[in-house]
């Protein structure tokens, strides 16, 4: 039985702004094993809701893109939910989305027809490059530093406004969605045997609210959000701080970025397969026992192969038999169900 001895360590708002990596740098090893676990789409089935109900419509509202709604949602859902890019940071996703929209003739025709102006990716790309050059994570602290450098660039103010309003709206959806079945039991097993950390590209405060509100915060040592850098960086710093052996580090995630972060750190990877999340958590205890006995690599490749099949790397609009209406309708049932449950009066085009 879980002893409840895992002590979660939080950081203050001031530390988050001034030194977001403080916990990574000062991490103290308490067990021989390390588990790094994602949240959105991994612990909880909240990926679809957050993207379809908040991220995408909020961006269309800020930039008045409702005239190309079906195209915007199609592209945004591909990059954020249904491809190898699943789970990427919001700013990276916006860059990919805008570049795709601006490259498509069919989207440009619809934009002209509806008097819609598609934004350039230039502003968000400048911000991404700024974070890279400054060696800082994405999110409010670095975006505010970027604004201080260009205080009269109103395109940056607009990007900042969208991101801030997304943060304010997310709890109205996110906190209502329970963790997957068996997650709590699996967290108990993990925390008994390993130092458990959360690694995510979601803002720290949003992660903290979710883990606290659902009573699972005490199973983890620290939470690493987008402000602390990439998932690779989170894992690398904690792994080095604790001198964990490669075979004793396990990364759990539902996206290709999680797999990439694991392999860049020579760690083991356990996939929570999109569409089969509950089954993945049912199977986890057996896989975790293999991990503890240092025999995990024998089963890892099979699971990664199944996982990879769920995340295509070719956008549907690049397929020779592409049909926009058919492509949009592929996930229409999910959209309609989410809007009926959480925002019945919200804007949603149905084809």
Could you explain how this protein is built, in words?
There is one protein chain. The chain has 351 residues and is an alpha/beta fold. The chain has two domains: 13-45 and 180-308, Rossmann fold, CATH 3.40.50.1000; 47-174, no CATH class. The protein has 18 helices and five strands. It has helices at residues 13-18, 22-25, 47-63, 69-80, 90-103, 105-113, 122-134, 140-149, 154-169, 171-174, 183-193, 204-213, 231-242, 256-264, 277-292, 297-308, 324-329, 332-342, and strands at residues 33-37, 194-199, 222-224, 249-253, 268-271. The chain has a five-stranded parallel β-sheet with strand order 3-2-1-4-5, with helices on both faces. Helix 12 (204-213) links the parallel strand 2 and strand 3 (222-224). The termini are far apart. The model has no long low-confidence stretch (mean pLDDT 95).
